[in-house]
Amino acid sequence: MELPKSPLQRQNRIPTLKMYIPSAVLPLALHFELTCVILLFMYKFLKGRLIIVRLILLAATLSLIAIGIATIYSVGNPAQISPAGQTENLSDLWKKQLIFAAIGAVGFIVVNLVNYRKFGPLSYWLYAFVLLLLAILLLDKIIDLPFVPVIKNARRWLRIGTASRFVQVQPSEICKLAYILALAWYLRYRSNYRNFSALIGPFALTILPMLLILLEPNLGTVLLMMPILFAMLFVAGAKVKHLAVIILMALLVSPLLWLKMQPYQRTRISSVLLQNDWLQKKAEHYPALGRLLVGKKFSTKQWENDWGYHLIRSKFAVASGGAKGYGFRQGPFIKYNFLPERHNDFAFAIIAHQWGFIGCIILLVFYIIIIACGLEISVHNTDPFGRLLAVGIIAMFTVEVLVNVSMTVGLMPITGLTLPLISYGGSSLLVSMTSIGLLNNIGRRRPFSVAPKSFR
């Protein structure tokens, strides 16, 4: 005699998807559905104008991020482990960089949810908010704030979270993008930049954050802002002779600024000249020359062990790579801690060490592709705000790459400016990926103008 089936048993007889799809095929079906959702999602943010240009831009960006994560992984996980080289814990930094990249992807998506023109009216508020954050950092010099850590005598980060688990945010990195947005919004549709006096406003917008950042101190970001200003002013219609006069005035004032610099600031700048053995001997032999260059008595031994240590080791790392390099996770600068900050400021030296001259050329080609795509997007946009915004972002990337690579090989002072999309750091990667997102947003929109052309 068959017992009556329970309601639960009768309910299980209702046809479901699993009854018609074998268990081995079900994961493939779910994977296919997920892939379709992701593709549709990406299509939503990629559709629009200049699709080929923006796809190339995105491919170059993702390639650089992948190279950066691989570089950070290599310095923390060398193929040949040596106890003498494990002086700092870098093995898990690549995992954090992956998380930072995911957060940066969110930033890329967020700035593409709305038309980029809607960020214009908000730019001044964002600019003011970042200035407030920079002021809070300086307030720590007067009042000891628990959420402002002092790292290497610098106040550059805001610590958010508990004592055991926290996130550090660098306001000066956010300031770069906030400044470009505010300046692009300020310069739009203006035709009076043919006059010298009209440059006071843009320079005021630039000098205020520069002073706050310089007092952290953070020389790298300060050096970044003036080239961005000059590039955007040139595109907005400022006369070249006016910009040349400003540069000449800065050169005339520079001797006075040099005398007011701290010894470590002078040393960073004069280190480019002090690579010359002849000048080192003269600076050591003539104390007055040494004090002029480094602000104190010069010593060749101290130069090699202290002031020029990073520069000397960085040049060794680059030169030892040769044409093809030692290979992934290989080489003495990977195995040993010969070069501090090799996962951050000196990531380019580690890339040269592992992949040689060929690897460096490939890396720079990716940056050239990003810059070329950004210029293409700028040229095809007649909206003054969009064009200025694109030019500012491209100027930021260009200066960052030139300064970082140049300081690595001794052509410019060591300023602490990171290599975009490569160097370790959440704030830097978030700002870089958000900036690429804005370029994508500008490129996909149709040309727009509600006033006569302002670019003459």
What does it look like?
The chain has helices spanning 7-12, 17-20, 26-46, 51-76, 93-110, 120-139, 171-187, 200-214, 219-236, 240-260, 263-270, 277-285, 287-294, 300-307, 309-320, 332-335, 347-379, 384-408, 426-444, and strands at residues 158-161, 166-169. The protein has 456 residues and is mainly α. A two-stranded antiparallel ribbon has the order 1-2. The longest helix is centred in the last third of the chain and has 33 residues, at 347-379.
Strand-helix topology:
Layout: H1 7-12, H2 17-20, H3 26-46, H4 51-76, H5 93-110, H6 120-139, E1 158-161, E2 166-169, H7 171-187, H8 200-214, H9 219-236, H10 240-260, H11 263-270, H12 277-285, H13 287-294, H14 300-307, H15 309-320, H16 332-335, H17 347-379, H18 384-408, H19 426-444
Antiparallel strand pairs: 1-2
Helix pairs in contact: 4-5, 4-17, 4-19, 5-19, 6-7, 6-8, 7-8, 7-9, 7-18, 7-19, 8-9, 9-18, 12-13, 15-17, 17-18, 18-19
List keywords for this structure.
single chain; about 450 residues; mainly alpha; two-stranded antiparallel ribbon; 19 helices; about 65% helix
Structure in a nutshell:
With 456 residues, the chain is mostly helical. The chain contains 19 helices and 2 strands. About 3% of the residues have low confidence.
The biggest beta sheet is recorded as: 2 strands, antiparallel
Oligomer: single chain
- The overall pLDDT average reads 82
Radius of gyration: 26 Å
Count the DSSP helices: 19
Elements, N to C (H/E): HHHHHHEEHHHHHHHHHHHHH
SS-derived structural category: mainly alpha
> Tally of extended strands?
2
Count of separate structural domains: 1
